[in-house]
Amino acid sequence: MSEEGDKSLDILGAKPVARAIERFSGAAVDGVGAFLSRICLPAAEEFGFLLRDKVSGWRTQNTLNVASKAKVMIEADPSSDGDHAHPRVVCAILESGSWTDDDQMQSMWAALLANSCNGDGTDQGNTLFINILQQLMPTEARLLKWSVENSKVRLAEGGWLDTDEIIINLKLLRQITGLNDPQRIDREIDHMRSLGLLTEDSGFDLDSTDAIVEVAALGLQFFAKTSVRSSSVEAFYGLQPRGYEEL
To answer: Which residue of 81, 165, 188, 222 shows the fewest CB atoms closer than 10 Å?
Structure first.
């Protein structure tokens, strides 16, 4: 094949990486490239900076992992045909997701990308969740996941997401987070509260080693958007949304 013909198939300028790093198969790179072009065609060429040889092999692999996970989620949803994402959102997710090799964090970035594909690709609402996920530690993500999965999520009378507080002792917090240092666990709970993921009442009781953990409405929405592709936050939690049309 001629050099010109070869370039014509290189959607994201990714082939130099595939040649330079043997463990990256050309099929994997091309598959991700085709997927990103499908969901965000106007900026397809802009994604090249993440997959060219100027980016380290470690970050390239992380980017491919995130995009591949998102691809699986979207292709598993029959209603996703024709959905697009805003270029700003796609680029921000791939850039940030390339900096983590933690499997859970990569899955969260992938779910956020999958949930950003809808309609005509003009919605930038998930930028809020990008900013939160950029600051979240893997240990904090594990605590959020455990807390949501062990809470009963419901809709309040006005239709807003709500849940109850959980009391977690230090021993269990160590098991959930994988951290031994109680001061660091305290810091990370404080940090999650500052991000708006936990309510203001969350934190350690000063007179004991028990902590109150209550996921805030923002935390519930964030968890839904970074877990799996879903039509709505209410659908993710199996809740019947309240009708606002008459208001």
So the answer is: 81
